[in-house]
Amino acid sequence: MTTSTALDTPYDLAADQISAFDRDGFVHLSGVLDPEVVRHYEPEITEKVIELNTMHLPMEERSTYNKAFLQVGNLWQHSELVKELVFSQRLAKIAADLLGVEGVRLYHDQALYKEPAGGITPWHADQYYWPFSSDRSCTIWLPLQETPLEMGPLSFAAGSHRFEHGRDLPISDESEVALQAALAEQNLPVVNEPFALGDASYHLGWTFHHAGPNVGVDPRRVMTVIYIDADMVVAEPVNDHQVGDLAASLPGVRPGEVAASPMNPVLYRR
Question: Which of 32, 118, 124, 218 is within CB 3.0–4.6 Å of 114 for a Cys-Cys bond?
């Protein structure tokens, strides 16, 4: 099987995995991609992160947010090879099946590299940043190496996508303290698991998640793709971050319109 064929061959998603995603707001899937497929794309993603990264401060001079990871977005626009992975029908169909929608389009991609000695990723929900009219958005978190607990894999508060407290908090020291307490009060179990090479998780935009520091010796290299309902309508932004995201990720699209700029192609439709 060629790499491109592997990216378009459907993944055997079980009914109980779809149910778990609906119940918990996330699901950790084994063997989403063959390890050799991941190894094929990792060097190009890493090369583009090094080329496009703009954060060069020493770790001790960075904010908590910038200690959490190096963040580079829309790699698909800078590399035809990365575009193959981001546009994978296999990965997009999983998102559509989990969301229960007819199709999904790309919102954007992001490489998230947590360097050795990189700090925590504070508790937050992604959709705080996104001007969407529904909750039909999700992110694939695809590690590009085996990721033991010491490297800081994502952890999720199961069921937190139905917990509205804290949805007005950007990722910060404040969100870490406030949400850690609020989620504990709700007795929402925190799931923190290692990832084998080829594993991936999908989580909803309103699922609260966190990651520990990277105390290993190698960077924690992760590729993410944010998928939205192919018919997603843009909402009026409710904070400055959403204003910025509307302009940057949905150029020319206005509130009340479908999120269908040239940067947001449909990746899968039944």
Answer: 118
